[in-house]
Amino acid sequence: MAAGASSGGPRHGGRGRSRARARRVRAHRALTALFGAAALAHLGALLAAPSAALFTKPALMPLLAAYVLARGGPRLLVVALLFGCGGDTLLQVGGDVPFLLGMGSFAAGHVCYLVLCSRHGSPGGARTRRLAAGYGAAWLVTVALLWPGLEAGLRVPVALYSLLLVTMALCATRTLPLAAAGGALFVVSDTLIATGVAGWPQAPAAQFWVMLTYIGAQLLLAEGILRSAILPDAEGAGREPGPSAHKRERQRTASRASTMPKP
């Protein structure tokens, strides 16, 4: 009787774990659909009913954060996305002070991304140095061009924020290509915003293009960092092996050495 009970335990435990996994899969699929629907609704509102976009925009990043939680992603990634929500909401208010506060909220999110990319990315190398030169040159040129059109009180904050932004984008190149693309898109999106603040001529439906690139940036960053963090072997994530990996490699080497014929 005891043997039967003990043998049934693992089977029940296995079924329980399978059901829990199935629930998690259903949850993150549902959240993926909700985020996609919200993104489409927001982009459509920007084209057809801009006033409705005021309500759809703040919902985007919380839904993406919930998706990250459902996937078991890092809590710091959730925090980064919620800082994005704060920035989204503040930028809708209008005026210099809300703009600066919104920029500060996005900056806090970029710091979270920097920590995550440093934690889950590769150490970098010659390729990273070349990309750093490219991003640095792009930052200098962009700030120099925008500077005359910016209000005096915005010039230094915009320059410092954009430096943090390109640093985050560079750090994202040390993880999966998804995150690297997300970092680059974030630079594009915020540059579009900055040209509007500096009074440059804008393309038709300018906010649509800002939000299209921004939504893509946050989604790619979240998915890239998520896969780097919980699926380190997915898509060949170029992470430096951690201590456990080094330990396993030493064990394999020792095992091979023990089986070799002795002279």
Automatic annotation (TrEMBL):
Main location: membrane
Transmembrane segments: 27-46, 99-118, 130-148
Comp. bias regions, Gly residues: 1-11
A GO term from the CC aspect: membrane
Domain of life of the organism encoding this protein: Bacteria
InterPro entries in alphabetical order: TMEM86B-like
Keywords: Membrane, Transmembrane, Transmembrane helix
Biased composition (Polar residues): 254-263
GO MF entry, a single one: hydrolase activity
Location of this chain's protein in the cell: Membrane
Region Disordered, residue ranges: 1-21, 234-263
Mode of membrane association: Multi-pass membrane protein
Biased composition (Basic residues): 12-21
One Pfam family named in its UniProt record: YhhN
Family, similarity comment: Belongs to the TMEM86 family.
Protein's UniProt name: Lysoplasmalogenase
Organism, scientific name: Streptomyces klenkii
